[in-house]
Amino acid sequence: MPPEGGLFSILSLPSYVPLAILGPIQPAAVKSVPATNKGGPQTARGKAAAAAELQAAAVRTVEDAVAYFKTWGDSVTCQFFYALPDASNAEDSAAAEYNLQIVHPARTTHTKGCFYILSARQLVKVDRRTGETEAIPLEEWLAYKKAYHTLREQLTFFGSFALAKCFQRWRSNCQTRQQRRSRLQLQGGLLVACPAFQGVLLQAASVLADLRAVRTSAVQPGRLYTAGEWSQQQGLWRSRKAQPEVEAAVAALVEAAQAACVAVEAEAELMLASVRPCELHDRIGVELYAATNGARARSMQAIRQEKEERAAAYRRALANRSLLPRLLRLLNFQLAAALADMATSSVQDAATLLQAAAPEPLLGDGGSEDGIHSEGSQRLPAAEERQLTSAAAAAGPSEGPAASPAFRCSLVAALHGGGIAFSPSQEEWAAAVEAEVVACSRQLATSVLPLLSLPSLERFGGQGATQPAQGQEQGQGQEQQQGQSSAADLLAQQDGAFLAAAAQVAALLQRSFAEARQVALQYQQYLVILSFEQTWDHEAWAAQQRAAIDLVGARSILGQLQAWQKQLAEMPLTQTAGLLCLDAAQLKACLQPLVSTALGRVTGLLTQLGGGRCSALCTKLCKWREVAAARPADLEAGFLPWAAELALMQRELSGQLAAAAECDAALDLVEWSLGKLPTAEAVKRDDLKEVVQELPGELAVAAAWHLEQRAAHVEAVAGQARVLAEEAAQMEAELKAGGCGDARCTAEEMLADLELQQARLDSSATQAEALAQLQQDLGAETEAQGSGGEEAHRNAATVLQRCLDVWSLVAEAEAVHAGLAAAVDEAGEGGVLPLQAVRHDARATVAALAERLAAATADGNAAVGDDGAIIARARDAMQACHLLL
Fold first, then answer.
1. Which terminus of the chain has a smaller tally of CB atoms within 10 A, N or C?
2. Are residues 607 and 674 in the same domain?
3. Which segments carry the region annotation Disordered (predicted)?
C-alpha cells in the first residue's frame, strides 16, 4: 500500500530494484499548476514564491521541469508534474516516451494508455490498462533520451520500421552488461550478489521482516487492566501469539540456512569429485581432451572456454563452501538484529500506547504529599518530564479514541501511619510492567540460540576444504572487521533505543504515581473515621450510658457519624492520574462498615436502653395506676399500706416523669438518626406517653380520696381509744371503790381474781398501744385525741399492782404460819432437829415479809380504798408466826 499523502512507494514497484538506496521521498499533496499570484505581501519570501509559481506555470517540457527543480531546490512550490507522450508522427510512436509534454493533472484522468509523473528524483510510468508502474531515475531517463536522439540524428538506418525493436534491444543489452559487471564486482564483497546465497538471503529477509513485526506485549487501547488481568493477558499473548511466531520464524530461518549450506556443500563435493586438479592449469590437446571427456569435435576455442567455465565453477563452488561460516555469521547477526529490533519495537509500541492512554499531568510546581504512603514518592526528574513531554509532542495528536487510563489502582487505608496507600503499590505496578513489557521482551529476544551453536549448523561453522586466495582472504578480513564494527554499532544503537523506551515506560509510570499521590490527598479527610474507630472505647461509653444516658454526647456522636456517612456517600469512586485509574471503592468499603457499625452500636444501645427503660417504667407506672385505683376502705384491708404506697408514689412521681422524658428523648434521638423507630419501641413509647399523661390525675384523685378516708379512720380510732380509756378508768374506780377485795376471802381466790383482771388490763393496754400506733400512722394531729387512754391504763395498772402486792403478803404470811404450825405439831411427837431448821427458815421469811409490809404501808405508797383489814390480816398471820417461833 502506498504511504499516506503519496501516490506510490518504492516497495510497491516490483519492476525496479535499485543498486543503491534512494533518499526518502517527501510526501506532499498533488498540486495543479497554480495561477499567477497577483497580490500578496511584497516581502523577499513572497517574491521568491511568486517567481517560483511563475516559472512553474511556464513549464512545458521535461527539460523545463529539470531546470525548474535545479533552480529552486527545496523551495519549489510544485513538486510533481504530469506528462503525456507526444505521438503526433507515426514513426515516433515507438519511442513516444522520450517525447513528453507537460499537461494539467486533470487530463491524465481521462487517459486510457500511459501517463508519466515527473519529480525531482525520478520519472514514474503509470499504465492504466494493466495497473503497473515503473520508476526510472531522472538522470538515467535523460541519458537514454540523449542516446536515442543521438542515434536518431547520426544513423540513417535508425529511422526504419525496426526502430522500436532495435532501440529496445540496444537498451536491454546495455542494462544487462552493466548489471553483470556490477554483480561481478559486488560478488566478492557482498553475499547477496552471489547466486548461491541470493535465495537464502532473500528468504531470510522475508522471515526476519515477519520476525521484526512480532510484538512481545499487547496493550489494548481503551482497556483498563487490573494487576492480575495485566499479567494474565501478557502471558497469554506471549504463549499463544508472540513465542509461537518467534519459534516459527527461527525454525524457518534455520531450515533455509541448513538447506543452503547442504546445497553448497553438495556442489563443492561434486566439484571435488568430478574435476581433477590438473584440469585447472594444464594445456593438453584437443583430441586428448575430447577423447577423455567424450566431447564432440569442436574448435579449440570452444574447448578452452568449456575448460575455463569448469575451472571457474570449481573455484566458485569451493569459494562458496569457504563462505558458509560467513553466511551463518551474517544470518546470525541479522537474526540478533531482528530480535533486538523486535524487542525494541515492542517496548516502543507499548510506551507509545501507554503515552497515548495517559492524560495530561496534574502536578504543579509544588504540593504537599503528607500522609501518602508509597516508597519512591518523589517527583519525576526534570529530564524525564522533558523526555515525556517531547515524546508526547512528537507523537502529535492521537486520531484514535480519547485518552483513558490503562491501569486500575485501588486506594486503601495504610495500616501504619494513618495515610492513603495504593494497592497494588507503585513498586508492584512498576515490577509488573517491567516484567511483562521490558523483561519479557529481553528474555524472549535472548532466548533464541545462535545459529552456529545449533547441532544442524554447527558442522558448517568451520572453514571449507579449500581456502580462498590470499588477496580475497585479506579483502574478506577487512570486510569482516568493518562488518563487525558496523554490527556492533547497530546493536548498540538498538540497545540504546531499547533502554530509552524502557526508561520512558518507567518514567511514565512514575509520573502517573506522582499524580496519583497528588490526587489521593483529597481522600485524606476520610481517615478521621479510621482514627475514631481505633480510639473510641465503645464498651466504656456503653457502661456510662447504662449508668446514665448522656443525650448531648450521644447526639454529638450520631451527628458526626451521619456527617461521615454523607461524606462517604458523596466520595468520588474513580479518579484519573496519568496511566492510573484510582479506584476508591475499596477504601469506601473499608470505611463505610466502620461508620455503619458505630452508628448501629450507638443507635442499638440507645434503642435498647430507651426501649427497656420505657418498658420497665410503663410496667411500674401501670402498677401505680392499679394501686391508685384499688382504694381499700378498711384499715384491716390495707388502708395504711395503701396510703404509705400512695405517699411514696407521690414523692417519686417527679423522678419517674423525668425518667420517662429521658427515655422518650433517647427514642427521639434514635428516630432522628434512623428516620424511624422499630415498631416494638414505638409501641412502648406510645404506651408510656399514655400512662404518663393519665397517671398524675389518677394520683391526685386517689390522694383526695385518701384524705377523706383518713379523716373517717381517725375518728373511728379515736372512739375506740376513748372506749378503752373509759374501761381502764372504770377498772381503776372499781378497785379503788372495793379496796383490795373482801378480807374474808381466801388469798388464793383473791389472787386468781386479780390475775384475771391483770390479763384484761394488759389486753386493753395492748389494744390502746395499737390504737395509738394507728393514730400515729393516720397523722400527727390525732395524738392529742388519744393521750388520755394511756394515763387511764397506767393508773389502773398501778391500783391493780397495789392489790396484788397486798394479797401476796397475806398469802405468803398465812402459808408460813401454816407451815410452822404443822412443824410444831409434828415436833411434839418426838422430833427436835427438823423443828429447829423450820423455825430458822420461818424466822427469815417472816423478817422479809415484815420489810415488805413496812414498805407497803409507808407514806410514799398510797392505799387503795379501805385496805386496812387486809393489811391487818397479814400482820396477824406474821404475829402468829412470831408466837410459834
1. N
2. yes
3. 364-399, 461-486
483 within a domain of the structure (yes/no): yes
Pure H helices in 635-786 = 639-674, 679-737, 747-778
Closest by Cα among 506, 573, 513 to 374: 513
Cα distances (angstroms) measured from residue 834 to each of 49, 130, 817, 844, 846: 183, 184, 16, 16, 18
| C-alpha span between 354 and 221 (Å, rounded) | 8
Structural contact between residues 98 and 54, judged by C-beta atoms closer than 8 angstroms: no
Distance CA 194, CA 192 (A): 5
Q: In this structure, are residues 513 and 548 in contact, taking their beta carbons and an 8 Å threshold?
A: no
| Cell numbers given for 220 | 489494548
Residue 81, beta-bridge partner list: 118
Percent of the chain with pLDDT over 70: 67
d(CA 786, CA 780): 11
SS3 call for 158: helix
C-alpha cell recorded at residue 268: 563443492
CB-based contacts of 464: which residues, under 8 Å, 6+ apart? 268, 318, 321, 322, 324
In whole angstroms, give the CA distance from residue 56 to residue 46: 15
Per residue in 806-846, pLDDT (tens digit) is 777 777 777 777 777 777 777 765 555 567 777 777 777 77
Q: Is the pLDDT of residue 449 over 50?
A: yes
Give whichever of 100-109, 215-224, 254-263, 580-589 has the largest mean pLDDT: 254-263
Range of the domain at 568: 536-712
On whether the CB atoms of residues 224 and 406 are closer than 8 A, the answer is: yes
Please answer whether residues 853 and 832 qualify as being in contact, where contact means their C-beta atoms are separated by less than 8 angstroms.
no
Both 211 and 358 in a single domain?
yes
Q: Is residue 468 part of a domain?
A: yes
CB 863, CB 740: distance < 8 Å: no
Residue count of the chain = 885
Residues 70, 65: Cα–Cα separation, whole Å: 9
CB 635 within 8 A of CB 709: no
Q: What is the pLDDT of residues 647-687, one digit of tens each?
A: 888 888 888 888 888 888 888 888 888 888 888 888 888 88
Same domain, 145 and 251: no
List residues bridging with 118 in a β-sheet.
Answer: 81, 123
pTM (2 decimals)? 0.55
- Domain end among 518, 545, 561: 518
The alpha carbon of 830 is separated from its chain's Cα centroid by a whole number of angstroms, namely 131
Q: In total, how many domains does the chain have?
A: 4
Cα–Cα distance, 331 to 261 (Å, whole number): 12
Kindly give the residue spans of alpha helices, DSSP state H, lying in 58-130: 62-72, 105-108
DSSP designation for 238: I
Q: Are 649 and 699 in contact (CB under 8 A)?
A: yes
Judged by DSSP in three states, 320 sits in helix
Residue 413 backbone phi and psi in degrees, to 5? -85, 130
CB neighbour class for 466 (10 Å; exposed up to 12, middle 13-18, buried from 19): middle
Please check whether residue 745 is in contact with residue 869, taking contact to mean a CB–CB distance below 8 angstroms.
no
Mean pLDDT of the chain: 73
Confidence of residue 640 (pLDDT cuts 50, 70, 90): confident
Neighbours of 339 (CB within 10 A): 25
- The residues that bridge with 127 in the sheet, in sequence order, are 114
**pLDDT tens digits, one per residue of 37-64:** 444 444 555 666 666 676 677 788 888 8
Q: Is 583 helix (H, G, I), strand (E, B) or coil?
A: strand
Element (H, E) at 12: none
